[in-house]
Amino acid sequence: MDYEPKPPGNGAIVPTEGPSVPADSQGLVLGLAEPVTPPVTQQDLSRLRRLLWIFSLLLALLIVPNVIERVQYALTSGEERAKYDVARENLPGINLSVISDASRLLAQYVGPSVVNVQTQRGRGEREGYGQGSGVIVDKDGYIVTNDHVVRGVRTAEIQLSDGRRGSASVVGRDPGTDVAVLKTELDDLVPAVWGDSDALDVGDLVWAVGSPFGLQKSVTFGIVSAKERRGITGIYKEFLQTDAAVNPGNSGGPLVNVDGEIVGINTAIIGRSYQGISFSIPSAIARESYEQLRENGWVLRGYLGVLLTDVADKVARELGLNRQQGVFVDKVEANSPAGDAGLQVKDVILTWDGIEYSDPTLLSRGIAATKIGAVVSVEIMRSGPGGPEKITLKVKVAAHPRNRL
Fold first, then answer.
1. Residues carrying an active site annotation
2. Mean of the pLDDT values across residues 38-53?
3. What is the mean pLDDT of residues 33-52?
4. Residue spans of beta strands (DSSP E) within 311-374
5. Residues 6+ apart with CB under 8 A from 306
6. CA distance 225 to 201
């Protein structure tokens, strides 16, 4: 007979939820057994350590910069706060209006001595106009300006700060230092006072006065940025470098110190307009040229007839010289005192008249200051067949040809 299964204890039938689970041959239910965990190997631990190291590195890259930034911000913020507190405490005790008043008074003191210079060159289609500045240095009407302002003309028109106009003749020009002297017949002039440029230090306040772009009575101020700038242009030229704003039209105007004294003649800038660097002829050089131009109409200088440059490191090593020792002879002119004395190209001048030199500009000025006709001892180093040779020559100094100034 047929087998009929009995229901559970209370006679109720329990429905299944889902498909039936097959059993193996031993009656075990398949798929319900717990999974077997494989053993952890050394390779697994090594992989885990690498993952942890990479995670730490990424975390550091994300967190550390933020921490450093916060620390730097805290330090900077603290420093700025400290500066602010110091400024707030001390600023009321500093009377900045004194500086403003001094600058205004200085402009009023120097202004009447500064002139606007206008020139006219050529005629017809070649006619051209130029402008610059100048400074009255003598009540008799002598005016100092730049050579390049009046180059090629015999007269110029000037305008004083009080509006008066008049002509000024060119007394003399010195292209070597870019200084020229004019003379006007206008009366009741207010001359400026010469100062000592050698007494200036880097950082000293200076004022530039002139007519940039024809704008008269313009005053700017700054500091002396550097002294003894040489080798920029010309064999005799040396400049004061300042950050006082100078533009075309300022050329020939004065650079003055805190006492309103002339310590320079504004002459050059880098580029076509002001870029933070201006150059002025030191008053020690400009005044010397002015005095000779006023007396003679030209500047008389000693003449050797050489082109001088710095000594290259290679040449110094070949001749056994120290760095910055001597001045290199790059060219010797024919029929010159140098050629007559036996000076040759590639010689290195060690001393001139017993004084050691290592700067071409300073040696050129030393030669120029030598008395005409004087016989001077020149010690040189020359590369000979047997090696470097130290030789002493005798040179008779001539007057510098005026057409080569």
1. 148, 178, 251
2. 71
3. 66
4. 327-332, 348-352, 355-356
5. 329, 330, 331, 332, 333, 336, 338, 343
6. 9
